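Below is a filled-in request sheet from our internal design queue. Each sheet records the structural input a requester submitted and the sequence that came back. We keep these sheets so that new team members can see what a complete request looks like end to end.

REQUESTER: design group, bay 2
PRIORITY: normal
MODE: inverse folding
CHAIN LENGTH: 127
BACKBONE (tokenized):
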């Protein structure tokens, strides 16, 4: 079976699951669902199988180590300024300030999450 989107699922390492859930639910304005799977504490992002894109989970366990030096995950937002403001309430560090690319029609920014991971935000813009 071939898929048009080769990335289907991500796992974000966390140290403190409650703190991470609070951060992501507040900053991304979504609800995560908790589960323990194979002995690992997880919190799943919403996923709708009839829509495009990947989903993922926050995961806590011995093999999961937060970092700013690895893969950068991009999260879509309808309002990057509002999302950055919510992140600031968690003392999130701005690692790459909001930058607008008018040629490609988007704005991006990179921040630290509550666990020390580098994540990015992307908003589509119209002229």
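RETURNED SEQUENCE:
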């Amino acid at each position: 079976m071939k898929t048009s989107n080769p990335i289907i699922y991500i796992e974000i390492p966390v140290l403190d699951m409650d703190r991470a859930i609070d951060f992501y639910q507040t900053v991304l304005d979504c609800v995560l669902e908790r589960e323990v799977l194979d002995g690992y504490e997880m919190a799943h992002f919403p996923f709708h199988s009839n829509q495009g894109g990947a989903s993922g989970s926050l995961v806590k366990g011995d093999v999961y180590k937060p970092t700013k030096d690895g893969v950068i995950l991009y999260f879509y937002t309808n309002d990057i300024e509002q999302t950055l403001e919510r992140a600031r309430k968690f003392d999130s560090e701005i690692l790459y300030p909001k930058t607008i690319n008018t040629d490609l029609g988007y704005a991006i920014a990179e921040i630290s999450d509550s666990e020390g991971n580098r994540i990015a935000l992307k908003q589509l813009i119209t002229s």
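SHEET NOTES:
- The beta strands are 9-13, 33-37, 40-44, 55-60, 73-76, 94-101, 106-112, 118-124.
- The mean pLDDT is 93.
FILED BY: M.R.
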